[in-house]
From TrEMBL, chains A, B, C, D:
Membrane topology classification: Multi-pass membrane protein
Protein name: Ion transporter
Statement: the UniProt record of this protein carries the keyword Transmembrane helix: yes
Signal peptide boundaries: none
Transmembrane segment boundaries: 28-46, 58-80, 92-110, 154-176, 188-205, 217-238
Organism of derivation: Pseudomonas flavocrustae
Length: 286, 286, 286, 286
């Protein structure tokens, strides 16, 4: 699959360094990129603290320019050395990489626009791009399989949660009323979410006896039904991890995989390990 | 089971559209119904916000009439085209559908009655009626099997929770007393529920050293026993998911469950559906 | 085991009614007892509400006498009809039953003593005595098996929690100090319990940047390690539920139980279901 | 492994008492050590309470000296009787034991230094040194196996949590802004951790409708993804518990795990330890 199996030109060598991790130079590049991403995130955060902004605002402003420059250079290098530049630019990762460059330019043109902060923080997603190449993420794949196979069940669960909080929120609005801080149904639903998820900020609390009784029921509901997504995900994950079938061709019909404890082929009924054959065992059950 | 296998008359065609989803028209009808339900919910919520009520109250009042009219028309159509109208009217869904119409009429006659809000929000349950017909809900059935088979265990668990909060609540009432906000045993029990379920509003907090020690024990109890409903549900769900196997006792060794496509028992090698017995195989793969 | 297999005298009939549930009269007795227990609990709770105490205090006082009288009569009847009265009086349940009578007498002699409240609420434990006889509790047995077999693991877990909260509490005391409400190490440990268990009252909160960083770590720790007791209990419960072995005497060595999917006896190596024997299957695998 | 198989000299007898638990004297030593550790912890805690410090400060000061003296004597004894003193001193436990002595000396020289409190509390870790020798900790080993085999998955999970709280925190900072208490991005991230972990102190709460909506989404996210570490750990623990089986590849069919007392493979009926091969069976039942 590798478009440059034996790198010769500088473009090919650059491609290996920037897009792959398996060479020391590639690993160094990824580490540096990670450091720059984290540093640019740190600048965004420090700049949001009033005291630091007043004192070092211009320094951080300068740093932001430097990081943006680095990201721009990186983006250009990626476009230059990619085997099919157009394909890279229009790909998901190409978009993410461009996103790291653009917002700073826009934000510098219109420096008051707080909302560009969000895009600057989106740079953090590039961390996953870099880590994608490490062995850790094979584990994430595992989680993804379990999550995606329980997707439907989780959708049903979230729908049920939404219904519950709407119902409970309306009930509390009717019971407690604006006098006790439940000023509208949406605000009461917000309270119901806070309570059902066992967060419990305490900015709104029921004051009436009936409201406290209903609140108690909501809490016990929330406390108990947390079992549902946990159960769903655990069961799916256990399934994903248990994918251990017996790898052995049936001597008669050649069916290659069987349940882990099978003695007979469940398609043709032949013994999988006939007692007469004295041969060396060649297959192993994982 | 379908009462009109080959729809001819307009009543029959209407029945297919309103009660089923498998035709494009039926799917459209369900989507529209869902939109109207959500819109009527939105109106209830917006109307509860003081500022919006003062400004757009009469508009929302009008919209409520329109939605009620639509639900009334829908209810009449359902009664007209149902193969057995009386059976539909007295059924659970017939009741839910009627509920969507009545409250608005009553609420419009007595517009101050806040309590009709609750019934108006109950319309939300119709969402499940509509979604019932989508493939998603086969997943909900799955959850229901697991939930209903762990019903008894969950009842015991809830009973234990009730006993714990009553005990802890009384202890805290005695230890902290009205001076620290624990003004009565029911209120202290409410606090115990808030604490045991790890919600922790903070509207009542223990002030004495002994009270804080007991509170710490309640919290650790609540934090730990959340494992119980989770464990119960996970184990039941894993059971329910494992039952997607071929349920057929092997004629020789009685092994009850097999892989879905088995022809022979993988324990004893016997044919699961021996050719000599000439009956149809009653395999039931769930 | 039943000491009166064919009840004849009134004492024997009374024994059946009071100590057993399997006759209609016995079931009625248990239901009444449950109602009296709940009513006496209700009186304790209502009496703790200031407004009700001032208005109906003397009525509730009278009701307490009546309930105490009923419990006293019940206790006497139990002593009279028990086959071995001395054994009953010294048993655990005899003590619980006596506890239901004594506190009220003492509390009436010294009516200010708030602490007797606790003993009055302990009557609630009699609910379990009554329910013990219902099928529900066979499920609780199930839970008890799982809980007791994970007892050691849970002890280790609780020990780790105690160490964590002591460490974190001391760190926070040093970082935040009395100025921010962390007035002593025990109080800081209380805060650490509130935070680690994700209760989060909000009566004490970190104010310094370092304190908030450490608090964030405590929260993520608490949020994550909730997986530990849940995992322990789930795995144990799954074990307790899976006790499904193959019940089949080995034709050669007569070993009676095998792993669910065994084809051969793992003690003597003989096929459990030899192909030559054409007999009817007599055993079933549960 | 025991360096003194038949203790004769006083050094050898002391070694057995101090480093081992299997003699009554050794058990007594460990119990006393545990008591001294807990007492020294208690002194640290009591001393941090202002009222007690003012009244009994000098007493607690004296007690700290005594405990330090005891730990110093213990440390000297350990160095003297250890078979290889240098190896003990440079070992992990040697360091922990020294740590119990040093801080008090330093703290007494500079009594204001609050930060030495932390080191004094680190003595608590010695509790684990003492308990290490009890059977309970074999259970902790169990947990450790499960935790360490799910380490990678948990790292991925924590990384995802960090990304989520950074994103959500920035969004909330932009939406709510300093006027509503979200004074900087780091503080908003702190709030996001408090909310996502369902702790919910309530010291910062969203005030705007959009902020409350996003907060509700954060809460439901936090409430749902708690399933992920729980599922991971449960599946791993179930695996770790299931490994209490006979690990031996069947010579013919290679089935790798068997019931602990198996002589024959229950899949193919082959002897697991055939008599012809005259080697000792290397069965290893974990």
């Amino acid at each position: 699959m590798d478009p440059y199996p034996r790198p010769g030109t500088w473009r090919e060598r650059l491609y290996i360094i920037i897009f792959h991790t398996y060479t020391p130079a590639g690993r160094l590049f990824d580490t540096l990129l990670l450091a720059v991403i984290m540093a640019s995130l740190g600048v965004v955060m420090l700049d949001s603290i009033q005291a630091i902004h007043l004192r070092y605002g211009s320094w951080l402003y300068g740093l932001e320019w430097i990081f943006t420059g680095l990201f721009a250079i990186e983006y250009l290098l990626r476009v230059i050395c990619a085997p099919r530049p157009r394909q890279y630019v229009t790909s998901f990762y190409g978009f993410i990489d461009l996103l790291a460059v653009l917002p700073a330019f826009i934000a510098l043109l219109m420096p008051d626009a707080q909302y560009f902060l969000v895009i600057r923080v989106l740079r953090m997603m590039r961390v996953f791009r870099v880590l994608k190449l490490t062995p850790y993420l094979s584990q994430a794949d595992f989680l993804m399989v379990a999550l995606s196979s329980s997707r439907q069940k989780i959708t049903v669960f979230l729908l049920a949660i939404c219904t519950l909080v709407t119902m409970f929120g309306t009930f509390m609005y009717v019971i407690e009323g604006p006098a006790n801080g439940f000023t509208s149904i949406p605000r009461s639903i917000y309270w119901a979410v806070v309570t059902l998820t066992t967060v419990g900020f305490g900015d709104m609390v029921p004051k009436t006896a009936l409201g406290q009784t209903l609140a108690g029921m909501i809490m016990i509901t929330g406390y108990s039904i947390i079992a549902v997504p946990t159960g769903i995900f655990t069961a799916e994950l256990a399934n994903a991890m248990r994918s251990a079938t017996l790898q052995r061709d049936c001597p008669r019909c050649q069916k290659p995989t069987h349940e882990p404890d099978s003695s007979f082929c469940n398609r043709c009924g032949n013994p999988l390990f006939p007692p007469t054959e004295k041969s060396q065992p060649e297959e192993s059950a994982h």
